[in-house]
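Quick one:
INPUT:
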């Protein structure tokens, strides 16, 4: 797609201070992203989500690249930085959550874009993940922001032939308050 050429990333030291971009990138990463020894990566089907993640990485000082995998119809975003990967891997979960909590709306936007879903009739907004601790952190952010929600477990999910637990946060309240949540969140996908 030509947004950037691939960089080795060995010496790139992105900004690691609390910021809106870092909270957004952490939210998206904890949802759909993953680490390689030299990079942070995201593979998604939505071009706008990939572009938003690409821009977040660029704001932090990465030299990201983005391309389309035609064999799987995915957009791949890569931010190369050995230093960043080592920093994330060494960080205790509580410190990672504290960093994300610096800008809770931005973290929630990234995580919702990765793990959220929207049903329009009737309006239902949910965020789901298999990591109980992560979903409880998301629930604590929503509580801190006074967003009415519920937290539940779905034990009926099957992945690769095996059952697993899916934790789910559902945004509660009348339609207007759910729409206000989406307006405040400003997601690039799964919006009304």
């Amino acid at each position: 797609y030509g947004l950037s050429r691939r960089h080795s990333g060995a010496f790139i030291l992105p900004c690691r201070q609390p910021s809106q971009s870092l909270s957004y990138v952490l939210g998206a990463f904890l949802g759909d992203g993953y680490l390689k020894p030299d990079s942070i990566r995201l593979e998604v089907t939505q071009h706008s989500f990939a572009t938003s993640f690409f821009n977040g990485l660029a704001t932090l000082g990465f030299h990201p690249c983005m391309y389309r995998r035609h064999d799987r119809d995915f957009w791949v975003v890569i931010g190369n930085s050995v230093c960043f990967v080592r920093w994330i891997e060494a960080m205790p979960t509580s410190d990672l959550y504290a960093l994300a909590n610096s800008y809770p709306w931005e973290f929630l936007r990234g995580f919702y874009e990765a793990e959220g879903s929207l049903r329009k009739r009737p309006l239902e907004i949910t965020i789901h993940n298999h990591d109980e601790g992560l979903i409880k952190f998301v629930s604590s952010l929503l509580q801190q922001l006074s967003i009415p929600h519920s937290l539940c477990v779905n034990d009926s999910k099957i992945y690769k032939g095996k059952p697993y637990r899916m934790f789910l946060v559902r945004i509660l309240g009348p339609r207007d308050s759910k729409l206000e949540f989406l307006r405040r969140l400003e997601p690039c996908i799964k919006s009304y």
